[in-house]
Amino acid sequence: MAGNADTRFVIHGGNPINGDIRVGGMKNAATPVIAATLLVRGECVIDNVPHLSDVERMLDILRSLGAKVEWTGDNELSIDASGADIGSLDRQAVKAMRSSILLMGPLLARFHEVTIPEPGGCIIGNRSIDTHLHALKSLGAEITHNDDETYTLTASSLTGTTVILPEFSVTATENAIMAAVMASGTTIIKLAAAEPNVVCLGEFLNAAGARISGLGTHTLVIEGVSELQGTSFQVIPDQIEIGTFAVLGGLTKGTINILGVRPDHLDIILLTLDRIGVRYELKGDVLIMLPSSQLNAFRLKAMPYPGFPTDLQAPFGVLATQCQGTSLIHDPLYEGRLGYMNELTKMGANATICDPHRVVVTGPTPLYGKEIFSLDLRAGATLLIAGLIASGETILHNASIIDRGYECIDERLHKLGASIERVD
């Protein structure tokens, strides 16, 4: 699955893309659920877990704590963190991945003191953890920022209160939930993120015995409990992967059957495809992408759920290169997430980055194979799609970063007819 920093995809564009592809479990739902097993006494069996480098890194961190972790099926995990010991935490592994920030809440709730490095991850602008710290401090944590770029959090006990988040932060909401489920009393989280992965985490914790209400809204009420018990659970399908494959279908003029979707998670994605002119049919849990004749320019603004997801603005950016007219893409959530447009411009796109949050794209323009570089996970997937519709050979460097969010993407697309060779 995962390669190294020099992994390249050699892509030959223009092949017909047709067939069935099953959507995987959502990485951004699996990692918080895995982190939350630290709160549970007993075995948790979690199904539909994607084999991704970020997931494996999170599992390695749990193993370093002494948790029993075993793959019991193709995408099924058994985790028993009853014997976890905070003293053995692998801090280097924590520092290497952004989603390790999700360990703050459960480690603090369980061990009452934790020193954790500032997390790493994709370089897509300034992503402060202040909202996380604010939430945990509201629940009673004392926080020290150390000289060695670590944070020490201490709390002899956590106490339910009203937590008002200063922004709709998915991971800060998840941290607040995990810290609050066994806090004494009632916690009310206002301005909570409502993304499907937040709901997924809450449903997992409720299955283990937590008392969380309001999931899917911006106000959560959590009644603290004394203990959580082992349970079985299934991770939701990844709507970001669904959206990525939908863009691929819209651009390659084949017929792609995306299996295992959750239609109730796709409202804004399907509405946006409708407005652009991408043809599809939805039959139960199958999204069928059909050949599209003319694609229309569009305006897109990334917003918190149920708005358009920031993780799909890049794939829709490559879609804009093939639309008739001028499109505007605006991502106010992160600055510096438009660097992939410079790579698309090398391939022939007519795009102007107006500022760190906005890009204007005029099309349609043919794309030509070039040597290009993946700056982050979603940019990598976007440039992979660009290579598949470009004339000639595209060499995509730093391709292993795509493994952080798309399981065996080259092998799965190869089965649809794509010409992709992984070179380590």
Automatic annotation (TrEMBL):
Catalytic center residues: 122 (proton donor)
GO BP annotations, alphabetical order: cell division; cell wall organization; peptidoglycan biosynthetic process; regulation of cell shape; UDP-N-acetylgalactosamine biosynthetic process
Record InterPro entries: Enolpyruvate_Tfrase_dom, Enolpyruvate_Tfrase_sf, MurA_subfamily, RNA3'P_cycl/enolpyr_Trfase_a/b, UDP_GlcNAc_COvinyl_MurA
Highest taxon of source: Bacteria
Domain Enolpyruvate transferase, residue spans: 12-413
2-(S-cysteinyl)pyruvic acid O-phosphothioketal carried by residues: 122
Keywords annotated in UniProt: Cell cycle, Cell division, Cell shape, Cell wall biogenesis/degradation, Cytoplasm, Peptidoglycan synthesis, Pyruvate, Transferase
One Pfam family matching this protein: EPSP_synthase
Function: Cell wall formation. Adds enolpyruvyl to UDP-N-acetylglucosamine.
HAMAP family, sorted: MurA
Protein name from the UniProt record: UDP-N-acetylglucosamine 1-carboxyvinyltransferase
Species, as recorded: Candidatus Uhrbacteria bacterium RIFOXYC2_FULL_47_19
